[in-house]
Design brief:
The two termini are 28 Å apart. By secondary structure, this protein is α+β, with helices and mostly antiparallel strands. The chain has helices at residues 3-10, 26-33, 42-54, 79-87, 143-146, 151-155, 157-173, 175-178, 193-212, 219-233, and strands at 13-17, 20-24, 34-35, 64-67, 74-77, 92-103, 106-109, 120-130, 137-142. Helix content is 40%, strand content 21%. β4 (64-67) and β5 (74-77) form a beta hairpin. The strands form three sheets. Strands 7-6-8-9 form a four-stranded antiparallel beta sheet. The protein has three domains: 1-80 and 181-191 and 237-255, no CATH class; 90-173, no CATH class; 193-235, no CATH class. It is flat and about 60 Å long. α4 (79-87) runs parallel beside α7 and α9 (193-212) packs antiparallel against α10.
């Protein structure tokens, strides 16, 4: 066994999620759980592994993944993980959520994520109930503060903003369970999408130019398809600090 493999095994960690054993190592994170076109640093890999362990997340079910397109990595947690963690808390008593719209010059709070054609979408709201608290935790978020106007925000604006309101209310209602966990909807993961799209456009232009030349290389077309597939399937980086709560398991270099 090479020294590199031994070091990878030394830094691996195993924990349990719902009775299922999860094993993470730098090699596994890099090969299967990292999205984006930039390499992760050792610190970023360790931070991701520690968050998954301390928050009991199963990254192989897309409950968490790490994205890196620019200088900093971003750890994303799925909405399903928020719901599962809330449901395991004995004090959880459900939630309500909906949209905030302007209808006939009146601000209306609707339920669900349905709105009328002429409604102006202002934001979303959510209430999370706990049996040990007199009042629910309420979250109201403005649409214009989170929308990027691109990608899924353009196609499904009501679904996206309602999801932001829910996870924010969940995090405030269960800070011990959900601290340090953020979804892609809360972060501008479309921030660098235009930059990536520009790169793809340049590749396509080069492909078309070469295709019109006498000695065109057909491999360019296949390369462009691969680049385009990566852009569509991978979220984009945004900066976020992730707290580490389980310091005892951290490598000495990060203590």
């Amino acid at each position: 066994m090479s020294n590199q493999v031994m070091e990878q095994e030394k830094r691996s960690m195993t924990y349990s999620v719902n009775g299922e054993e999860i094993k993470l190592s730098p090699a596994i994170v890099t090969k299967y759980l990292k999205r984006g076109n930039k390499d992760l640093t050792d610190q970023e890999i360790t931070m991701f592994m520690m968050l998954c362990k301390t928050q009991r997340l199963n990254p192989f079910l897309n409950e968490a993944y790490v994205v890196k397109f620019g200088q900093d990595a971003n750890i994303i947690v799925g909405k399903g993980a928020f719901m599962r963690r809330a449901e395991t808390n004995k004090c959880y008593e459900g939630f309500e959520a909906g949209l905030i719209v302007l209808r006939n010059n009146e601000v209306i709070h609707t339920e669900g994520n349905f709105k009328l054609k002429d409604d102006v979408l202002l934001g979303a709201w959510a209430k999370v109930y706990r049996s040990d608290r007199k009042y629910p935790t309420i979250s109201q978020v403005p649409f214009d503060e989170y929308t990027t106007g691109k990608s899924t925000w353009l196609q499904k604006p009501t679904t996206m903003i309602r999801k932001v309101a829910i996870v924010q209310a969940m995090r405030e209602a269960f800070p011990s369970d959900l601290n340090g966990m953020y979804t892609s909807e809360e972060i501008d993961t479309d921030e660098n999408l235009e930059v990536v799209d520009d790169a793809v456009s340049e590749v396509k232009k080069e492909v078309e130019t070469n295709a019109n030349q006498q000695q065109a290389q057909p491999n360019f077309s296949r390369q462009a398809d691969v680049v385009e597939a990566e852009v569509v399937t991978e979220p984009v980086q945004a900066t976020m600090d992730i707290p580490l709560e389980d310091a005892e398991d951290m490598p000495d270099v990060f203590k």
